UniProtKB/TrEMBL annotation:
Gene3D superfamilies registered for this protein in UniProt: 1.20.5.1500
Cellular component, GO annotation: nucleoplasm
The family this protein is said to belong to: Belongs to the BRMS1 family.
Biased composition annotated in UniProt, kind: Acidic residues: 49-73
InterPro entries named among the record's database cross-references: Sds3
Pfam families with a match to the protein in the record: Sds3
Highest rank taxon of the organism: Eukaryota
GO biological process, one term: regulation of gene expression
UniProt organism field: Caligus rogercresseyi (Sea louse)
Compartments where located: Nucleus
PANTHER family in alphabetical order: BREAST CANCER METASTASIS-SUPPRESSOR 1 (PTHR21964)
Comp. bias intervals (Low complexity): 36-48
Protein name from the UniProt record: Breast cancer metastasis-suppressor 1-like protein
Sorted UniProt keywords: Nucleus, Repressor, Transcription, Transcription regulation
Length: 260
């Protein structure tokens, strides 16, 4: 605004000096008045705008302080609301936890009663599997028992047969040993008998010879011999020994049936 007034002041004297001030004078005065009015209006507008800005700043400060107070109150209010909601949630959680605990305990007790009564599915299925396993094991055990019994019977029969054969062999050996002992005893008895017979015969012969020697008639009797005669000039003891050996050889050659 100041430059416009300066420009208008300088233009007035210049117009008068040029000789055309009669025509331009009134127009210049009106222009100056208009410019001065405009400058006054502009200055008023500027001043009013500055005042409004200051008022707006004050209002903003007051509004900001009021809004800060409102924010604190709102935060406190919301905090209390959140605390109340949290306490309500904790109470509801405790109630639900207690309810869930009771429901679980009820379910477990019911399941335990079903298991004790033998009606629970968790009990029946493993029980069925156990029964199937028991049946299979019993079948396998029965087959194994039969096989073991058969094996034991075979071993018993084999031992029985071996014992019988051993008995027969021992019996035959005992029979042979007893038989051999008896045969030996019989042989000894026969030898003794033969020796007794020979000795008695010799005694008889010797007695007869003595009697003949004592009888005078017998000496004079001639001995008649018909055919070839071999006269062995042996002693009586040698004859007895030979006779005993001959008897022993004959008795040893006899078969077993003849000895019986």
């Amino acid at each position: 605004m100041t430059p416009k007034s300066l420009r208008s002041g300088s233009s007035g004297p210049g117009g008068g000096g040029s000789g055309s001030g009669g025509t331009a004078g009134p127009h210049s005065g009106s222009e100056e008045m208009e410019e001065s009015g405009l400058s006054g209006n502009e200055s008023g507008v500027v001043d009013s705008s500055d005042g409004d800005a200051e008022e707006d700043d004050d209002e903003e400060d007051e509004g900001s302080s009021d809004s800060s107070d409102m924010d604190v109150q709102e935060c406190e209010k919301k905090r209390f609301e959140f605390i109340d909601d949290l306490s309500d949630l904790e109470k509801q959680f405790a109630i639900l936890r207690e309810q869930l605990y009771r429901e679980r305990m009820t379910q477990i007790e019911n399941k335990l009663m079903e298991v004790k009564s033998g009606k629970a599915a968790e009990y029946l299925q493993p029980l069925e599997e156990l029964q199937i396993n028991m049946k299979n094991r019993m079948e396998v055990g029965a087959i194994l028992r039969d096989l073991r019994l058969e094996n034991i019977n075979c071993k018993f029969d084999a031992e029985k047969l071996a014992t019988h054969q051993n008995f027969l062999s021992e019996k035959s050996l005992l029979w042979e040993s007893i038989k051999a002992d008896l045969e030996e005893k019989i042989h000894i008895l026969e030898e003794d008998k033969n020796n007794l017979d020979l000795s008695s015969g010799l005694w008889d012969d010797s007695g007869k010879a003595i009697l003949r020697k004592m009888d005078p008639d017998s000496r004079k009797k001639p001995v008649t011999v018909t055919g070839p005669v071999i006269v062995y000039m042996l002693h009586e003891n040698d004859i007895i020994d030979d006779w005993a050996l001959i008897k022993k050889a004959i008795s040893s050659r006899k078969p077993m049936g003849d000895i019986k």
